[in-house]
Amino acid sequence: MAEIDYLQALNQAMDEELARDETLTIFGEDVGGVKGGVFNATQGLAQKYGDERVFNSPLSEAEIAGLAIGLGVTGHHAVAEFQFADYILPATNQIISEASRMRYRTQGDWTAPVVFRAPYGGGVGGGFYHSQSTEKVFMGQPGLRIVTPSTVRDAKGLLKSAIRCEDPVLFYEHKRLYHSIKADIDPDEEILTPIDKAQVLREGDDLTVMSYGMTLQYVLQAAEALAKKGISTEVVDIRSLYPLDKATIVAAAKKTGKVLLVNEDNQQGGILGEISAIINESALFDLDAPIQRLAGPDTPAMPYAKNLEKAFLVQPDDVQAVMEKLAQF
Amino acid sequence: MAEIDYLQALNQAMDEELARDETLTIFGEDVGGVKGGVFNATQGLAQKYGDERVFNSPLSEAEIAGLAIGLGVTGHHAVAEFQFADYILPATNQIISEASRMRYRTQGDWTAPVVFRAPYGGGVGGGFYHSQSTEKVFMGQPGLRIVTPSTVRDAKGLLKSAIRCEDPVLFYEHKRLYHSIKADIDPDEEILTPIDKAQVLREGDDLTVMSYGMTLQYVLQAAEALAKKGISTEVVDIRSLYPLDKATIVAAAKKTGKVLLVNEDNQQGGILGEISAIINESALFDLDAPIQRLAGPDTPAMPYAKNLEKAFLVQPDDVQAVMEKLAQF
Amino acid sequence: MTAQLLDSGLSKTTLQTIYKQILSARRLDERLIQLQRTGKTSFNVSGQGQEIGQAAMVAAFDIKKDYFLPYYRDMTAFMLWGATMKDILLDSFGRAEGPSSHGRQMPNHYGAKHLNVVSQASTVASQFPLATGVAYSARLEHSDRVTLVTTGEGSTAEGEFHEALNFAGVAKLPAIFVIENNHYAISTPSDEEYAAKSLADRGAAYGIKGVDVDGLDFTATYLAFKDAVARARTGAGATLINMNVIRLLDHTSDDNQRIYRSKAELAALKAKDPLKTMTQQVLTEDIYTQAELDDLEAAIKKQINVATDQAEAAPLPDVASLTEQVYAPKEKGNGIYG
Amino acid sequence: MTAQLLDSGLSKTTLQTIYKQILSARRLDERLIQLQRTGKTSFNVSGQGQEIGQAAMVAAFDIKKDYFLPYYRDMTAFMLWGATMKDILLDSFGRAEGPSSHGRQMPNHYGAKHLNVVSQASTVASQFPLATGVAYSARLEHSDRVTLVTTGEGSTAEGEFHEALNFAGVAKLPAIFVIENNHYAISTPSDEEYAAKSLADRGAAYGIKGVDVDGLDFTATYLAFKDAVARARTGAGATLINMNVIRLLDHTSDDNQRIYRSKAELAALKAKDPLKTMTQQVLTEDIYTQAELDDLEAAIKKQINVATDQAEAAPLPDVASLTEQVYAPKEKGNGIYG
Ligand SMILES: Cc1ncc(C[n+]2csc(CCOP(=O)(O)OP(=O)(O)O)c2C)c(N)n1
Ligand SMILES: Cc1ncc(C[n+]2csc(CCOP(=O)(O)OP(=O)(O)O)c2C)c(N)n1
Ligand SMILES: [Mg+2]
Ligand SMILES: [Mg+2]
Fold it and tell me: CA-CA-CA-CA torsion for D141, D142, D145, D146, nearest 10 degrees?
């Protein structure tokens, strides 16, 4: 066993898959060479696997995406890194029109088994363009999967599964988790996390809270605090943002009848709205309270000034306060 | 009074605004010259207002968007046409990173008062890339407005308001409405439709149905048919897709307690999920039935083969059947 | 001005085959137009005026191993790459057996797994980044295969065109990028599309060889491609070819070019029809006699009739398949599904 | 090799002012680095090595009427365009009065309404399409103003760069597109960014004049821009200028270039510092005496201290403003709101 952080878990996942799958290539801006990515996620990989398999791309996101897809159609798995999830936007057309449609439009003759990694999330002093949650832009594009790990174990296992998956997978990584969460991971254990399942991280009876990313950490802390006050919380790590794992979501909602959904993104138009709609459709008469969303305000995410950044971000105290209030509803 | 169709209403709106606002320019692929757009929405305008104000752009959507935004920051209103709503995707970065953020990131020093027109929707034998509903991609980007007219009067009035609005507005037009709906419009009447309001098109007590675009026509027809069977339907034209008009939506939901949401897009991840979440948040205890969504399947929209196209699209009969069943819930 | 066909260095037999394929493509296109006009199909893109260039282009490749990412006006190229008349017609009728998309896409969106012809979207130029990935895969596999990708001149204004060529230059990819320059993007004439003297000048912008060629001249075009393919196959990198052609007909069956092109312009175009030129050359150079050509016309007509009947009778996709192949089938036991 | 400053045709007084501004920018950058290292601010992009080129560039414009869309390494250019030390520092501290974004954006995202400097996003090259709109507006207003837009060489790989230049060529826009080529995009050296011999060759790809200039040479750079501005102002269209410069420091305060650039490379760079060269020229050409320069240094230091104190003391944005200016205020009675 060795304690590693979320970023190291990602690096291990890619290292192991490069060793296992000779077709696999990994590239993106500053991903190759000695730098190994601006967050160092690919550090050491170019040296170990050569510049043909792990390399720098020019500064062009549509090309990064299309290069991956073109490798995919010829049977090569690829991991393409977008330097920040904000910079995935120039590649939107490639991801939606090409990657997400390839299998369906040829009924499986051609496929795009590629992973697009995208570091997302705020609280890093990055202002609008180094902080955003852009996952909602790609929500509801059948053929595409969107996943995000919120534990160290999943960072490793989910990335390995995404690489092995024959579908295109958008892989979101919360930047503030890179070094803030750590876990003991046996380097010899082959970890594969299901890419199609939400995960119940904590069982409880009084209320159900679903989240992902940084805010999920706050939910777990609050659940712990509430437990001391005798309130028992069911905590769901949504994990597969699209398609959603309806069964796990609905079961967890029914279990307590009080549901809180939390994410860092704006309140309107994101993943949480869809989850709320699914619960309403399948569990309306089990609900004891309106499904609540705790999320960022509906303003552009997020200003640079420290006080505004903080005001934009859902804070740990907010999470606990809302949970407590919902439990008492 | 003269009977005009939805497309003519759009043309009139642009014509009147070009005459009124000397800063206004209109451009896009094939928009200028004698062609006046592949759907003829801008027919006659280049001749009337000159090639400097109404012109063809090269085939480059990011440039089309950016050109508009650049005009906007210098105080010029602009209408940029994307030839199909499918081809807005290469402009995603411009629309989200630039247009939607400009006012906020400068606190109003610079603004982007531009309209992006996007013909959307299927049932035209256009396959995946001439049929899609791409509005959800832009949902939840504060600073941006998304609107779509579903009546001839609104086609005119909403486009005029969008042009006058100081915010960037994504203006979706359902292609199948271009010639299929007509109305008597007084050419001398100055029509301005509020860009921030849903509209109750029909009052009723038994169930509430909310929709936009082609499916709204089916809802209206079904409401008429159901009226003959003694079922009374409240019909809401959502119209402002983002930001949503919460007040009108919640009031209409509360009124009957039975809500059906209909659109042509996929079921998961679109506008309807957000509406459902809003209703759940504000009117849970007024609901007598789960909020239902009737929408396309969660498969890529939409195959070319006639039978598959039809199977993808919500059909008038489906709408009526689901409404009738919900009324009886 | 047009070079002799036999100066291409291709044998008489090869030239016979190629001419036959070109004529078949022209006649098939005429049938497709008829089918669309009579409401039997709903859409067609005609490539008339571009066939000679397309045929000369494909003749330079090894279609057994090379990859092709075509665009919607490439019917002739697709047929020379191995597609049958029936394949084309199946796609046109939106039939399940259509190789391009099994009825999922509009006609003219060519693709075929068994021919190494990669499926294309309607979003113009979006195949260019893909082509760089396909080309890169050859390097990973230590294969000397070459990747061919085409588009119209209007579509080169897209950012994705630029991003792909830039990477191809950096990575010295074994790829050939072709602009089929018919001087119109729907109704927009090329001086409103770009201001470069020639689009071949964009080669230098990417450290790629740029070549201009008259796509109405079979031999000139063939030789330019032959050279480009040889360079790509031997590691000398990519080539950008600006192939000048003409668009004889409307943009698509939804368009009417008489609105934006004058009668005089259209008449001048018609006089330049490269099929007429080539037919003349075929006769002059004794590749076919007039009698053989007459037989050929008759045989093609028959083939088209048979293929049309077969394709029309073929089944539509199964409606139940609407929800199939959205995602990969979930294999059990591989650990990646819950 | 470097041309004489006075050969620029600029007066001694003008050159004095420009040198003073350049020196101020260098010293201010040093202060910004210090503030970041001591945790008083959280981020900085240094433009050291690019200042001379930037100053020569701006000197060719009429900052009273021209428009500027800068990029994040353009602090010197922004200051020559009229921004004060305090403006820069307010932005760095994320203060409400900061002209660029009133505390909304990271430092180095320059903009100022009163200076016609348009706000920029962090998404590289996305200012290029905007710049074409700004340039087009001059035509609509029958103004002879010129639009300047800059970026780094790595960012020219973006599709938006291409789309903008293509349109600028077609529309003969009064715009000047500048590549500040420091040969690195973060850690990626330019041979992995592009393969063109020179990025100026991209001009021809767009029917635009392409010019290479040594951005370490004040006079050469100034004269190249002067010519380009004159062309733009008189309707001769756009110019693409590839300005070769050096990046003396890390990409940003988040980077450490010693990882990917050798000691030898960095030492060679330092020896080329264009400020050293210019200082030498200023003395040799009697623009300033050493004693005057010493006074200048002292005065600048004082100015920076004052500006730093003022900026630090300035208030942060009001937290209540978090939800302001998302949309235009709803005017009553104009009919467009319900
Ligand atoms: C991204 C995108 N934008 C717009 C269109 C609509 N469109 C289809 S073909 C075409 C013109 C293409 O012209 P060109 O590239 O010259 O090819 P040609 O049709 O002349 O062969 C346009 C604008 C599209 N298919 N994709
Ligand atoms: C669209 C986009 N992709 C990636 C980035 C991250 N990024 C910021 S600066 C930079 C390198 C830019 O290099 P260059 O254009 O040469 O400018 P320089 O920093 O050298 O002045 C990168 C990759 C970004 N800001 N925007
Ligand atoms: Mg063309
Ligand atoms: Mg650089």
Answer: 90
Mutation test residue for ligand 2: of D50, D72, D105, D155, the one with most atoms within 8 Å of CB: D155
Question: Hey, is the C-beta of D328 within 8 angstroms of any chain B C-beta?
Answer: yes
Q: How far apart are CA D58 and CA D14, in angstroms?
A: 13
The token pair at C82 is 């191995």
Residue C299 pLDDT greater than 90, yes or no: yes
Please give the mean pLDDT across all residues of chain A: 98
- Which residues from C are below 8 Å from A108, CB to CB? 325, 328
C260 flagged as catalytic: yes
**Residues B237 and B151: beta-carbon distance below 8 Å:** yes
B274 lines ligand 1 (CB under 6 A): no
Tokens of C241: 């070819």
State the catalytic residue, choosing from A76, A77, A130, A174. Answer: A130
Ligand 3 center to C100 CA (angstroms): 23
Ordered DSSP codes for C67-89:
EEE--TT-HHHHHHTT--HHHHH
Place of tokens 């000679």: C52
| pLDDT value for D1 | 73
Inter-chain contact A111–C328, Cβ cutoff 8 Å? yes
Tokens representing D288 are: 């300033």
Averaged pLDDT of chain D: 97
Using the Cβ of C323 and the Cβ atoms of chain A, whether some distance falls under 8 Å is answered with no
The first and second tokens of residue C127, run together, are: 């195949």
Indicate the pTM of the whole model: 0.98
User: Is the C-beta atom of C152 inside 6 A of ligand 1?
Assistant: yes
Pocket of ligand 1 contains residue B305 by CB under 6 Å: no
pLDDT in tens, D61-79: 999 999 999 999 999 999 9
Using most ligand atoms within 8 A of CB, pick from A83, A89, A120 the residue to mutate for ligand 2.
Answer: A83
Round to whole Å and give the CA distance between A242 and A145. 5
Q: Looking at this predicted complex, what is its ipTM?
A: 0.98
Distances (CA, A) of C6 to A16, C11, C243, C283, C296: 56, 7, 21, 12, 20
Does C202 contact D207 at a Cβ distance shorter than 8 Å? no
Ligand number, closest to the Cα atom of C150: 1
As a residue count, chain B comes to: 329
What is the arithmetic mean of pLDDT over A49-61?
A: 98
Are A264 and A314 within 8 A, CB to CB? yes
Domains and CATH numbers, chain A: 2-185 (3.40.50.970), 199-328 (3.40.50.920)
B128:C155 CB<8 A = no
- pLDDT value of residue D6: 97
CB atoms C155 and B59 under 8 Å: yes
Kind plus residue range of the DSSP H or E element containing C214: strand C209-214
Q: pLDDT (tens digit, 9 = 90+) per residue, B54-98?
A: 999 999 999 999 999 999 999 999 999 999 999 999 999 999 999
Residues in chain A: 329
For residue B185 the two structure tokens come to: 């419009």
Question: CB distance from C159 to chain A under 8 Å?
Answer: yes
Give the list of residues 6+ apart from residue D228 with CB closer than 8 angstroms, or none.
D60, D176, D209, D211, D239, D241
Residues from chain B that touch A244, judged by Cβ atoms under 8 A, are 268
- Asked if B326 and B260 count as a contact pair (C-beta separation under 8 A), the reply is yes
pLDDT band for position A113 (50/70/90)? very high
Residue with the two structure tokens 């800059």: D150
Cα end-to-end span (Å), chain D: 68
Contacts with C120 (C-beta within 8 Å, 6 or more apart), sequence order: C69, C70, C71, C72, C109, C110, C111, C126, C127
Active site residue C247: yes
- Nearest alpha carbon, ligand 1 atom 1: C123
Judged by a CB distance cut-off of 8 A, whether residue B280 touches chain A is yes
pLDDT at C1: 72
Per the residue annotation, which of C72, C95, C247, C288 is the catalytic one? C247
